[in-house]
Amino acid sequence: MFQPPEIVELLEQDKRYTFEAYVFVFEALNFAQDVLGMGAESPGEPSGPSTGEEEPPERHVSGQELCEAIRRFALDQYGYMAKTVLNNWGIHNTGDFGEIVFNLIRIGQMRKTAHDRREDFDDVYDFETTFREGFEITPPE
Q1: What tens digit of pLDDT does each residue of 41-54 get?
Q2: pLDDT tens figures, 56-78
Q3: CA distance linking residue 95 with residue 91, whole number of Å
Q4: Residues 122, 84, 92, CA angle at the centre, nearest 5°?
Q5: How far apart are CA 43 and CA 51, in angstroms?
Q6: Residue 4 and residue 119: Cα distance in Å, rounded?
Q7: Which residues constitute the domain of residue 125?
Q8: What's the number of CA atoms in the CB half-sphere (13 Å) around residue 20?
Q9: CA angle, residues 28, 34, 38, in degrees to nearest 5
């Protein structure tokens, strides 16, 4: 699987999370915006020197919104195994989502607004309750 050089370097610097964890967060962000319709239009902070071209506003998803989208996406993709899969990738709580997002921001793969903070991801929900106790199997009709 192709891994961009920035991600390869990030994986070498921070060994807490697997490549799959980063891909999953990107996919969950797309799920939040495209499927769940989350995100208000908001200009991101500049990521580098201005090119003179005005970029269209991005649909910004807050930390709490992204955690909710991740919860729904994980249950949709992995069902009862969601917690096990996330744990296997190094993700044990919602704060880990914040670490992943801010790692991606640091290497220029995601953007943030001036109001976004790493702490926005802390204690959004409990993994055991969300992915085990709250899991329901619904039979087909």
Answers
A1: 655 444 444 445 54
A2: 456 789 999 999 999 999 999 99
A3: 9
A4: 20
A5: 15
A6: 27
A7: 5-40+60-133
A8: 8
A9: 80
Assigned domain for 48 exists = no
Q: Three-state secondary structure along the chain?
A: CCCCHHHHHHHHHCCCCCHHHHHHHHHHHHHHHHHCCCCEEECCCCCCCCCCCCCCCEEECCHHHHHHHHHHHHHHHHHHHHHHHHHHCCCCCHHHHHHHHHHHHHCCCCCCCCCCCHHHHCCCCCHHHHHHHCCCCCCCC
Q: Is residue 138 part of a domain?
A: no
- Residues constituting the chain: 141
CA 96 to centroid of chain Cα atoms: 9
